[in-house]
Amino acid sequence: MKLRLVSLAAIAALAACQVKTEPTIENQFKQTENAIENSAAAIEASTENATRAAANALEAQAREFENRADAVERAATTPSNATGNSAK
Which of 24, 26, 58, 73 measures 20 to 30 Å from 88, CA to CA? Predict the structure, then answer.
């Protein structure tokens, strides 16, 4: 009889532990899932910022190159032989 009572108490205790464990595991899963989602959002934001910064840098370099090309073109089309003509 005593053995049966101890066995029933052990089964009841085990069942109570399982009931408490399931929500804890579910909470841990939710916390992990939220952490993964937050990490993914942070990575996405960082990637967007880095991409935008790289695009801005490339655009600035392209403008600088264009300005230099324009300056070279102006220098090439400006009559540089004006002083040469006056010497004739």
Answer: 73
Its pTM stands at 0.50
Residue type for position 21? T
> What are the angstrom distances between the C-alpha of 75 and each of 26, 28, 68?
73, 70, 10
CA 61 to chain CA centroid, Å, is 24
pLDDT in tens, 49-77: 999 999 999 999 999 999 999 999 999 99
Other CB atoms within 10 Å distance of the CB of residue 84: 9
Digit-coded pLDDT (tens) for 6-19: 676 777 777 777 66
Q: What's the CA gap between 30 and 35, in Å, rounded?
A: 8
Question: Which letter, b or e, does each residue of 38-61 get, where b requires 16 or more Cβ atoms within 10 Å of its Cβ?
Answer: eeeeeeeeeeeeeeeeeeeeeeee
**Which residue type sits at 25?**
I
